[in-house]
Specification:
heterodimer; A: mainly alpha; B: 356 residues; alpha/beta; Elongation Factor Tu (Ef-tu), domain 3; Rossmann fold; Ubiquitin-like (UB roll); 3 domains; five-stranded parallel beta sheet; 10 helices
C-alpha cells in the first residue's frame, strides 16, 4: 500500500478499437437441451448465463444512460455509447434462448423473475434526494459494473479458448452465441473500468464493490446451476456441486477453479487495467469468422432499407 | 492480524448459517429471494423466423400468393402483417391473409408494382425470387390494424387492400356479427380473393358490393356509407385516395380504422417536421435529410443512443403527442403506442412531442 504513486493503471493502447453493436440473430430450433453432449452439468452451468445476462445487461444499459452526463472525455463517451449498444444486443440475444428452454420442458421463469427483481428493484433507481445521495448510488453501480465486467471478460476470454467444447461436439449455434458475446466482452473489456476510473476511481469503492459483485455472482451462479439440474426433466435427481465444477474445469468444459482464484488479486491490484487481460486481436478474429456476426455485418451493409408497397 | 480474524469469523458464520438452513435450501433451490410478479426476461420482442416458401401461385392478374411454412409460428389476429426480409436485404410488409388458427404456415399476397407505377423493387423480388423451396426471413407478426369491437362492421377494400380485410371478414362472420363489404378494383380479373368473399357473403349477396372500374366505374362511397347503424366500425385498406374519400364521406365522429396501403416511409418521402421536447421546453425542426436523434443531440448532447439503426433500443423515448412513423425493427405493438426509437423513426404528421 506504500507505492500507490507508481502503480497507476496503464492501458495498453494497442488493445483499443472502436466499438459498435452488431445486429445478430440466432435460431434455436436445432439446439438440443444438453448442448454439451452427455454433460448436463456443464450445459446448465453455462446456461446460467441466459438467466443472469438479459436482466443484468439491461441494467448496465439503464445505469450507463444515466452516467453519460458525467463523462468529460469524448473518446470515452464514444466507447461507452458503443458499449451500451453491444450490451443491449447481448441482453436481447440471451433473452431469446429462454423461450427455447421453456419449450424443452425447463421453464426458467421462477429464476428469471428473481433476477429481474434483483436488477430492476434492488439495484434499480432508488428514491433518493437529488445531489450527493443519488450520485453515490450511481457511482456505486458504475463500480459494480466494472467489477462484473472483469468477470465477463474473463469468461469471454475463456470461451474463446475453450477448444474442449468443440472436441465434445457442442452445439455450433450455442457456441457461436457464447463466442460472439465473449469476443465482444473482450473487445470492450476496458470500457467499464475506464469509465469507473474517470468518474470516480476510488480504490476503496473498487475493492468494496468487487467483494459484493463476486459474492453475488457466486451466489447466483451456484443457485442457477442447482435450479437447472433439479428441474431438468431429463435428469433424475440432478444435483450441482462444487466438486462437479472443479472437475469440469479440469476437463476443460468449464473455467478452471485456479484460474478463477488467480483472477481475484489481479482485479484488486492497484495497477490493474483490463487491457492487460485477453487479446483484442483474437476477439476481432473470431468476430470476423462468427456466422452470426458476419451475417449481421452483411445485413447492416444493406441498411437502411426503406419499407414499401405491399 | 485483526483483518484475517474478521474474515475467518465471517466465513465461519456464513458456513454455519448455510448448514443451519441446509434443509430449507435443499427443499427449494430458489429460496429466499423476492421475485417480480411480471418478469421482464424471457419474453423476446420479435423473433426473426426463417420460413420455407411452399406455395407460390398467381391468384389474380399480377397478384401472387405465398405460403410460408414453419413450426409453432407465433399467433396473430386479423389485420396483422409480417415483415419479409427479401434476398436483397429490403424489408417489406405484407398483411397476413390466411387462417389465424394455422400455426404451421403464414399466407401473404402481393401485387406486382412496376417502377413506372411507383414500385421500388420489393414486389418484383417477391414475384420473381421467392420461388417454392426458397427460405425467407420474416419478423412479426405485428398488428397495427386490429379489428375493432363493434356490433356491426363496414369494410372497404381497394384491390390488394383486401388482404388484411379477408381474415377480418372471416372472424366477424364466425362471431355472427353483421357486416358489409365494398370491394373495388380495376377489373374483376385483377381482384384477388373475389371468390372467397363471395362465398363468405353466401346467400345474402347484398352484403357484398363489388365495383370493377372496367365495368361500373367508380364506387359510390356516399351511398355505401350513408347513415351507418350506431356502433358500426368502419375498416378501410386501399390506396391513399380511397381512404381519403372514405374519411370524407363518413360523418364526423364515425369509428374509422385505416390501414395505409403504402406506408409513407420511403427515405425519398422524408418530410420536415417539428419536435417539441416538452420537459426541456424546446422545439426543434428535423429536416428531411437528418434524424430526430441528430436534431435532439444538437440541443441535448447527453441523449443516450448507440446503434443508430433501430435495433439496439437505447434511444427509445416516450411520445406524448403526434403520429409516429415507426421504422425500427424492435419495439412491440404496445411500446409503439407511446414510444419511438428516435434514431430511425420519424413523425408521420408535421409535429411530434417527446417526453424529454
Amino acid at each position: 500500500m506504500s507505492n500507490t504513486q507508481s502503480r497507476e493503471p496503464r492501458p495498453d493502447a494497442s488493445e483499443r478499437i472502436p466499438l459498435k453493436a452488431r445486429k445478430v440473430s440466432f435460431s434455436w430450433e436445432d439446439t438440443p437441451l444438453h448442448w454439451v453432449p452427455g454433460d448436463p452439468f456443464a450445459t446448465h452451468t453455462i446456461n446460467v448465463l441466459h438467466l443472469l445476462l438479459p436482466a443484468g445487461e439491461r441494467w448496465f444499459v439503464h445505469v450507463y444512460k444515466q452516467v453519460l452526463p458525467y463523462i468529460r472525455d469524448d473518446r470515452l463517451r464514444e466507447d461507452v455509447i458503443g458499449f451500451i449498444g453491444q450490451e443491449a444486443m447481448h441482453a436481447q440475444a440471451h433473452d431469446e434462448v429462454l423461450p427455447h428452454l421453456k419449450e424443452q420442458g425447463l421453464d426458467p421463469t421462477p429464476y428469471t423473475a428473481q433476477v429481474d427483481w434483483l436488477f430492476e428493484k434492488m439495484l434499480g433507481d432508488r428514491t433518493l434526494p437529488p445531489g450527493k445521495a443519488r450520485q453515490w448510488w450511481l457511482m456505486e453501480r458504475v463500480a459494480l459494473i466494472a467489477a462484473i465486467e472483469h468477470y465477463t471478460a474473463f469468461l469471454g476470454n475463456w470461451v474463446l479458448n475453450a477448444d474442449e467444447l468443440d472436441r465434445r461436439g457442442a452445439d455450433p449455434t450455442m457456441l457461436d452465441l457464447l463466442r460472439w458475446h465473449g469476443a465482444e466482452e473482450v473487445e470492450h473489456r476496458s470500457v467499464a473500468f475506464e469509465l469507473f476510473m474517470h468518474v470516480d476511481g476510488s480504490y476503496r469503492r473498487r475493492a468494496r464493490t468487487w467483494a459484493t459483485a463476486f459474492t453475488a455472482l457466486v451466489f447466483l451462479w451456484q443457485r442457477g446451476a442447482r435450479f437447472f439440474m433439479e428441474n431438468d426433466p431429463t435428469v433424475i435427481g440432478g444435483k450441482a456441486s462444487f466438486k462437479d465444477f472443479y472437475r469440469g474445469g479440469k476437463q476443460g468444459t468449464l473455467p478452471t477453479t485456479p484460474d478463477m482464484i488467480r483472477s481475484i488479486p489481479r482485479y484488486l491490484s492497484r495497477s490493474y487495467h483490463p487491457s492487460h487481460e485477453g487479446s483484442t486481436a483474437q476477439a476481432v478474429a473470431y468476430l470476423a469468422s462468427s456466422p452470426a456476426a458476419t451475417a449481421a455485418e452483411a445485413a447492416t451493409e444493406s441498411l437502411p432499407a426503406p419499407k414499401g408497397a405491399r | 492480524m485483526p483483518r484475517i480474524r474478521t474474515v475467518l469469523l465471517v466465513t465461519g458464520a456464513a458456513l454455519l448459517a448455510k448448514r443451519a438452513m441446509r434443509r430449507r435450501i435443499d427443499a427449494s433451490p430458489l429460496w429466499p429471494l423476492p421475485a417480480l410478479d411480471e418478469p421482464v426476461s424471457g419474453r423476446p420482442r420479435s423473433r426473426a423466423l426463417r420460413l420455407l416458401v411452399t406455395r407460390h401461385e398467381t391468384v389474380a392478374e399480377g397478384v401472387v400468393q405465398l405460403r410460408l411454412e414453419g413450426e409453432h409460428l407465433p399467433a396473430w389476429e386479423p389485420g396483422a402483417h409480417l415483415d419479409l426480409v427479401l434476398p436483397s436485404g429490403l424489408v417489406r410488409q405484407y398483411s397476413l391473409c390466411g387462417d389465424p388458427e394455422d400455426t404451421s404456415s403464414y399466407t401473404v399476397a402481393t401485387r406486382l408494382i412496376d417502377a413506372g407505377q411507383g414500385g421500388r423493387g420489393g414486389s418484383r423480388e417477391v414475384h420473381e425470387q421467392l420461388r417454392v423451396g426458397t427460405e425467407v426471413e420474416v419478423r412479426g407478426p405485428r398488428n397495427r390494424f386490429p379489428l375493432a369491437d363493434a356490433e356491426t362492421y363496414v369494410f372497404v377494400a381497394g384491390g390488394i387492400g383486401i388482404t388484411p380485410i379477408l381474415p377480418m371478414l372471416r372472424a366477424v362472420e364466425a362471431a355472427g356479427r353483421e357486416w358489409r363489404l365494398l370491394y373495388g378494383g380495376r377489373s374483376r380479373a385483377s381482384m384477388p380473393f373475389l371468390e372467397d368473399v363471395e362465398k363468405l357473403a353466401g346467400d345474402r349477396a347484398e352484403r357484398l358490393t363489388v365495383v370493377a372500374e372496367d365495368e361500373g366505374g367508380r364506387p359510390d362511397l356516399a351511398a355505401f356509407l350513408a347513415d351507418p347503424a350506431p356502433a358500426t366500425a368502419v375498416h378501410v385498406c386501399g390506396p391513399e385516395g380511397l381512404m381519403e374519400a372514405v374519411a370524407a364521406a363518413l360523418p364526423a365522429g364515425a369509428d374509422l380504422h385505416l390501414e395505409r396501403f403504402t406506408p409513407h416511409t420511403s427515405t425519398e418521402g422524408n418530410g420536415t417536421f417539428e419536435v417539441e421536447l416538452r420537459r426541456s421546453r424546446r422545439t426543434l425542426t428535423v429536416a428531411a435529410d437528418t434524424t430526430v436523434l441528430a436534431a435532439v443531440r444538437a440541443e441535448l448532447p447527453n441523449t443516450a443512443y448507440s446503434c443508430e439503426q433501430g435495433f439496439c433500443g437505447t434511444c427509445q423515448q416516450r411520445v406524448l403527442e403526434g403520429e409516429i412513423d415507426h421504422r425500427d425493427e424492435l419495439l412491440t405493438d404496445a411500446e409503439r403506442a407511446d414510444s419511438m426509437l428516435i434514431c430511425v423513426s420519424r413523425a408521420s404528421g408535421d409535429r411530434i412531442v417527446l417526453d424529454m
